[in-house]
Specification:
single chain; mainly alpha; three-stranded antiparallel β-sheet; two-stranded antiparallel ribbon
Amino acid sequence: MYFLLIKALIGVILLWLYYRWNHRRIIQLGTKIGSDKLQMILGFGPLVTPAINEWQPHRKLMDIAFKLPKVIEFIPNFHKKLTVLFAEMDKYHVMENSYDILVYCREYTFGVSGETLMGRDADKTQPFYTKLLAKQSSECVEYLSDLLFKPAYQLRPIVTLADKTIYKDEQQNIATLKRLIDETYAYYASGLRNSPEYLDSMDTAVAKHVNDAIKSNILDRDLAITSMVHLFGASFETSSSTLYFVMFMLAMHPNYQAIAYAEICQLFPDNDNGEFNMSYEHTKQLTYLDMFIKETMRLFPSIALIARIAVNEDLILRNGIVIPKGLEMAVSIYDLHRSKDIWGPQADKFNPDNFLPSNVEARHPYAFIPFSKGKRSCIGMRYAEIALKVAMAKIIKRYKFTTTIKLEEIVVHNNLSLQLANHPPLTIERRTIISG
């Protein structure tokens, strides 16, 4: 008995040492095995499949639904769902643990994704259903992150065992999301407009364009379902974590927060509690807010690590290093964004001036890639940028943020999206309305 316990302890110690000494290699190995596993669980789709000959036609089809004119049509949805977020945030003042705010950000972005991607408001027929779906989806993200980054899950027998035991609920949650998406396509195909859960403006939803492709036999139905699963995961999880990080950067940097607030008040001077309506033209005028959000995404990119494969031929870098054709690489966006060679000796400090036009122009265009870059860049980049600016302009007009934690005390860990290891204290104060 004692002999077996000693063997088990030695095994754990060796695994821990292996992890510490070979951390980057494990991440690269996990990226390969994990991406295969992600495709098996979520299905083939635009965010996972690496083969360019399979990916490019599909991406071109999906891009239609995320062109700028289409994204602009979503702005009323961004406004609408913020009333729900405001109702939750109004309940809080001094928070010793700010995790609840992250939860509410996830519920907000999941609700927005439901309306813009599927044209559905799940709460219309099942009250608080969005809260449940957001919680389940966050648990699924944790599950998929384990597959990618935990050393034990690089062993397929352990993955298979975990799928049948501790992760049964998560697999069922993924199946539930796929069922909801399938129901949505069926509703579009039926031509009916008799369910209160579906919005009057549903014809602007991404699912409408995808369903048109299904009807025209351009896109396979199963592929259309898994594609929407990928889009859901990317849109709600990354946007919510970015909102959360922006709030903390505001709280840690009161001087910058004051500048952003002044800019918003100049554009929207009424005492409106942040309940003003924004247009796309307004978002273009909030230049300092744009700089603030970008600086947040520099230090805290929601996707900290991406995988790429050298295709077609060997890739020769400027320093002479040769990347052989077929090699799979892990690119650390987090490290790139904090490189002192690129961003200077204060690279770890928060400074929105990094995104003054003159500074942007002086840097390499690939120095800042929170949405990746090139042909495989994030399909929803414009969607995310506009949604974040609308949400944060209204939030900053309504609330003032403070915290006792310092930037250098923040500890992050890599999930499918970047997460805080602990959720620091955060004070949320409703701004005073000046009476006329």
